[in-house]
Write a structure and sequence with these properties.
alpha/beta, 11 helices, five-stranded parallel beta sheet, about 55% helix, single chain, Rossmann fold, about 250 residues, Arc Repressor Mutant, subunit A
Length: about 250
């Protein structure tokens, strides 16, 4: 078992910090293969002891030992002639998302959107792309009022609003948003999380959670868009289910 497969197979035993490190390695493998532990600590925000503990959890003596083996395994994987192409990897991902999404849960979400005073969409970094895409798609859904405020703007929420957030990992902006609600500074709307992380550290702060599959590190290449592809497929399924519901109601 190489380091990539080892990291994937150890997911269930990760702490919150370990999971965040794993997600960063999965998104930016070349950085973790080439940069020094000092550079990684500065660029990612993970402390040197945290990176060392992650490596030791996988059975290595330290981070340098892990990094040496990881760089070798990464190159071997990319040199394989039978390695799947990005198109094949993402094709399998989209099919997996299609199978995973619970249609009944999705229909209930659409009904809640239709009955909500307003629907707000949030996404941070790459997760902002699917949030913007869904916001545009909802403009064509009768009875749904939706918008995507700027990250640094807090809307005047109503209790019957709905807030849908796309998030693969917990970032500072999302933590700040949830802290505002916990401190009672703003009215808390009904909150829905769409994530590719089954152990998302903020999931308990949401009323509903959709967990989507993602590409494992062992099957990915230098592309870092796997979570975005999963989110966009979720949007496509939501739009399809909403359209089918409209057709059935008009019959």
């Amino acid at each position: 078992m190489n380091t990539l497969e080892l990291m994937d197979s150890s997911l269930s035993s990760y702490s919150k910090t370990d999971r965040a490190i794993y997600e960063s390695i999965r998104k930016f493998p070349d950085n973790f293969a080439a940069q020094s532990v000092t550079q990684l600590s500065q660029s990612t925000g993970f402390s040197k002891p945290a990176l060392t503990r992650f490596a030791k959890r996988l059975g290595f003596g330290g981070f340098v030992e892990f990094q040496y083996q990881f760089a070798q395994d990464l190159e071997l994987m990319r040199a394989r002639t039978d390695a799947p192409t990005n198109a094949e990897v993402y094709g399998e991902l989209l099919q997996a998302v299609d199978k995973r999404v619970d249609r009944d849960q999705l229909r209930a979400l659409i009904k809640r959107m239709e009955s909500s005073h307003h629907v707000y969409l949030r996404g941070y970094n790459l997760s902002r792309i699917p949030a913007e895409e869904l916001c545009i798609a909802l403009q064509f859904q009768p009875g749904i009022s939706a918008s995507m405020p700027q990250v640094d703007v807090m809307p005047r929420f109503h209790e019957d609003d709905l807030l849908l957030v796309y998030s693969a990992v917990s970032g500072a902006s999302l933590k700040d948003l949830l802290n505002e609600f916990r401190m009672g500074r703003f009215v808390r709307p009904h909150m829905v999380l769409v994530t590719t992380n089954s152990k998302h550290p903020m999931r308990r702060s949401f009323d509903e959670v959709f967990v989507l599959p993602t590409v494992t590190l062992a099957s990915t290449s230098r592309t870092v868009l796997s979570d975005t592809f999963a989110f966009l497929m979720f949007n496509d399924i939501l739009a399809t289910v909403a359209a089918a519901a409209r057709e059935n109601s008009s019959d």
